Amino acid sequence: MAISAAAGSRTLPERPPISAPRRQCLRETSGARSARFGGQPGLGLIGLTLVVPVLLFLVLGWGGAERSLLVLGPMSTFALPLIAMIAFWWEDWPGTRLRDSLSGWANTVLIVAGGVVLTAAGQAIAGGFHLAGIFDTFPGPGHVPTYTATLPLGGAVFVAMLEITLVGEGWPLRRLPGLSAGLVAVVAALIVALIVYFTLAKVTPPPHSGVTPRGGPVRSEDLGAALVLVGAWQVLVYVVWRGWPLSGLSPTGLRLGLAHAVVISAGA
Is the confidence at residue 23, as pLDDT, over 90? Predict the structure, then answer.
């Protein structure tokens, strides 16, 4: 327990355990951590049985499936980088400092709060911060609705986070303690996403929506679709296939360069 409690400050393994070759993963992990990784993906599938009832509760409590999608969709998208930070960089810290019955709730509260904050930031970038627009599907003229205005930016943050964390194997941030490395990875993903958004996104907002028009070369809808496909390739190669066929290549520079090129070009 002492080891897991200090996960936020411990030096990380050389490569993310979820995508490292299995033999290397078992060599660099031990005890409960090794058993946890060895039990995947079965443990994750079992965990879905706990998520589905909560999802149904939110759908009914927010006024139906459509309203829930419009309100919770952007928040969930912006929360994804934080989930990646806690799972891949902090190794479930700070929940590991609490007893098992509270650890998941502590991490969930942190993720939800961070998702709301990042959604507000995305709304401000899309046209201006309006609290009503975060929690209301139709906030009125001049108030930026988060759906769909913030989704390309939120998707870009998550894809950049996975690109840094899995495709790029966290290099060179994994030399830092886990807590610092995770925070730096999120900030780096935000910077990359902003560059992608301001460079590529063409935004043609509906009248009186409050969304700022932009004249990039790629329609925001098309950019969002491309980001979804890049994310699908990231998950396929680095979660389902554990980095195959690229994970066995050396030297590191060649492996990472090919990895970025393959995943991004395949999605594009």
Answer: no
Express each pLDDT in 118-128 by its tens digit.
999 999 999 98
Quote the CA–CA distance of 232 and 237 in Å, as a whole number: 9
> pLDDT digits over 74-95, tens only?
999 999 999 999 988 988 787 7
The closest alpha carbon to 67, from 14, 121, 130, 137, belongs to 137
The pair of structure tokens assigned to 129 is: 């911060």
Q: Residue 51: which domain range?
A: 2-267
Provide the number of structural domains found in the chain. 1
